[in-house]
Design goal:
The chain is an alpha/beta fold. The chain has eight helices and 17 strands. The strands form four sheets. A six-stranded antiparallel beta barrel has the order 12-15-14-13-16-17. Strands 3-2-1-4-7 form a five-stranded parallel beta sheet, with helices on both faces. Strand 5 and strand 6 form a beta hairpin. It is globular and about 70 Å long. About 40% of the residues are buried.
Length: about 375
């Protein structure tokens, strides 16, 4: 009997190609689309494209599923998404941190809901259109994520938080494919989504303006949205802000400060409700920071220092570092070469070659490299 797979479909070319590809491989496939938010709730220019959760995307999926005789379900997760992902997103910005909603959503909402639906439909696996791969160590039997073969589309960074019980039931049909190959297959199979535009932005901020979203979201906390001072490194006030929630480490534009050199956000002080800026970009370099809320995939929780390559944001090139265990499941990351704008709230993912050892959320910057004086 063919293995049954519940395929998570967003309405884009990747997930729909994964869906049809698995069917062509002989799997018994079922499609499920997760409705996460309403355009009227999130505001902005919500008619600009056919991204996930739009009526256009659902209609495209209906057409593809009818074309290939695939059962199709829509899962209403709007309220869970609000309380789990959007509230986290807003609260992190309000506390002066920069969240990574995709990492959080995958582990805390999407995989949980799809696994539950897979169980209800007696499915053996779930599958998504991520450009990544799942592997299992023959000796330890642990499951872990490997990078997708298409380096320009690799999405392993967003999947480090998935636990063993999820990985053991997950398929990534596109992990061995390139984006060009996927579009070619979609065209050959007559999929309506073959040339559909893709989006790499936050799905629920339809107009890409997260500051507008934070200002309008009805559950935004008062803290983090109060006016305060923008101060230079020497402590003198150089401007005013409308809330620390509207800033992130390394930011250069949108501060409304007149100065003969560009200012960069160096620090966000939640307790003082102030934003610290510098006109020396080298002051953004960091060689040590702390992570917490870790998850380990290819290895058990390390009890001794080890070396790995660390990726501190999605488009960051992994940097060699030593990772040292601390108390309470915290880890200190010591980078061989200082990196720019290490940002609390973002994910730090630990790689060995092309596979994930584990990861955690950046908690605090422990030491900032003393920069050289600015050139005259």
């Amino acid at each position: 009997m063919a293995k049954r797979v519940l395929v998570a479909v967003s309405g884009g070319v990747d997930s729909s190609t994964a869906l049809v590809g698995l069917k062509k491989q002989g799997y018994d496939v079922i499609a499920a689309h997760m409705k996460l938010w309403d355009y009227e709730d999130v505001g902005g220019d919500y008619f600009q494209d056919g991204r996930c959760c739009s009526l256009e995307s659902v209609n495209d999926l209906h057409q593809i599923c009818n074309q290939y005789e695939i059962p199709f379900y829509v899962l209403n997760c709007i309220e869970k998404f609000k309380s789990t992902v959007i509230d986290y997103f807003v609260a992190e910005y309000a506390s002066g941190r920069t969240p990574n909603p995709c990492v959080f959503c995958n582990a805390e909402l999407k995989w949980k809901e799809f696994i539950n639906k897979a169980d209800a439909l007696e499915c053996d696996y779930i599958a998504t259109g991520h450009y990544a791969r799942v592997a299992q160590d023959k000796n330890t039997h642990r499951f872990y994520i490997r990078k997708g073969v298409d380096a320009s589309r690799d999405q392993s960074y967003f999947l480090w938080r998935l636990p063993q019980e999820y990985l053991s039931r997950t398929l990534f049909p596109l992990g061995e494919q390139t984006k060009l190959q996927v579009r070619k297959m979609a065209s050959e199979w007559g999929l309506k989504t073959a040339q559909k535009k893709e989006s790499r932005d936050i799905c629920f901020v339809a107009d890409h303006d997260y500051r507008r979203f934070l200002s309008e979201w009805k559950n935004s906390p008062r803290q983090g949205f109060l006016p305060g001072e923008i101060v230079a490194e020497d402590g003198h006030v150089v401007g005013e802000h409308k809330g620390i929630a509207f800033f992130t480490i390394g930011q250069r534009k949108g501060m409304g400060i007149a100065h003969d050199r560009p200012y960069y956000v160096k620090e966000i002080d939640r307790n003082a409700n102030c934003v610290v800026v510098t006109d020396n970009e080298d002051a953004l370099l960091t060689d040590k920071f702390i992570v917490d809320n870790t998850n380990w995939q290819a290895v058990d929780r390390p009890a001794a220092p080890f070396r790995a390559e660390v990726k501190v944001r999605y488009l960051h090139t992994p940097a060699p570092a030593e990772i040292k265990p601390l108390e309470n499941s915290h880890y200190e990351i010591s980078l061989d070469t200082p990196q720019r704008a290490i940002t609390p709230g973002q994910a730090a993912v630990f790689y060995n070659d092309d596979y994930i050892l584990g990861g955690g959320f950046i908690d605090s910057v422990k030491k900032i490299v003393e920069p050289p004086p600015p050139s005259v």
